[in-house]
Design goal:
268 residues; alpha+beta; CNF1/YfiH-like putative cysteine hydrolases; six-stranded mixed sheet; globular
């Protein structure tokens, strides 16, 4: 179950417990102005850097991390995941992220992993046994590529994470109520997941029947996590497109928007 906290407003999952802090941001409670009002957490959205920093400071103060501890993804809709550590703190907010990576993971305390969304699916993972965490951005392409499974596999390889120990939270994103696509999206999901994907690829009705579909990105990513062996999966009920006053939604405003962030960090 997800809980709402404020100010600033953010969400947490009851499924992620132990020596860890985490959050899924909303767009409420920051200092950005205009079309970026108010809690914009993206550094390439046209905002003043000082506003973005203050937004991280406010969110971090509420959640339990410092802006200087953050490490960002560099999202290009791939299944690329990368291990990061304390030496990477500040990458993204204070200096550019070089390698492309839609998922990042670590077993080092004090490293606040950050991934971004504005309709795509944010996923946070915590292994309370091996003390490891991950932040994952899964657009529809990353979902079809199985980035959630790739990250669990990487944590198992590098840290010995047992999937059954993993606590997973899938945050707010565009829901099957609003995510209208052409045939290429369900075809990609079926190619990757086979018939197990079918319940989560809702066909349009009426004149668009057979041509348009409404995929459920949250449940498709939950399916990948179950395939990886993860059993404890919390799924947000919030749709970003349905609530543009609360969440950034690319489908609603296009490029004239800020970015949501999902953050997770092992406590020091």
């Amino acid at each position: 179950m997800f809980q709402t906290h404020n100010p600033p407003e953010y969400l947490t999952s009851d499924f992620i417990t132990g020596n860890v802090v985490h959050c899924f941001s909303t767009r409420r409670g920051g200092v950005s102005t205009g079309y970026l009002s108010s809690l914009n957490l993206g550094i390439h959205r046209g905002d003043d850097w000082s506003n973005v920093y203050e937004n991280y400071r406010r969110l971090g103060e509420a959640v339990g991390f410092l802006p200087e501890q953050t490490v960002f993804t560099r999202q290009t809709h791939t299944d690329a995941v990368a291990r990061v550590g304390a030496a990477d703190c500040g990458v993204g907010l204070f200096r550019e992220v070089e390698p492309e990576r839609d998922g990042i993971y670590t077993n080092e305390p004090g490293v606040a992993l950050v991934c971004f969304s504005a309709d795509c699916t944010p996923i946070l993972l915590h292994d309370p046994v091996r003390h490891a965490v991950a932040a994952i951005h899964a657009g529809w392409r990353g979902t079809a590529l199985g980035i959630a499974l790739r990250c669990v596999e990487a944590m198992h390889r590098d840290f010995g994470t047992e999937p059954a120990d993993v606590q997973a939270a899938i945050g707010p994103c565009i829901g099957p109520c609003c995510f209208e696509t052409d045939r290429n999206v369900p075809e990609a999901m079926l190619a990757a997941l086979g018939s197990e994907a079918e319940p989560f690829l809702h066909p349009a009705q009426g004149d668009a029947a057979g041509e348009k579909f409404f995929p459920d990105l949250k449940q498709l990513n939950a399916l990948w996590l179950r395939r990886a062996g993860v059993r404890r999966i919390d799924v947000s009920c919030d749709c970003t497109r349905c609530q543009p006053e609360r969440f950034w939604s690319h489908r609603v405003t296009g490029q004239a928007r800020g970015s949501l962030a999902a953050v997770i960090m092992l406590r020091q």
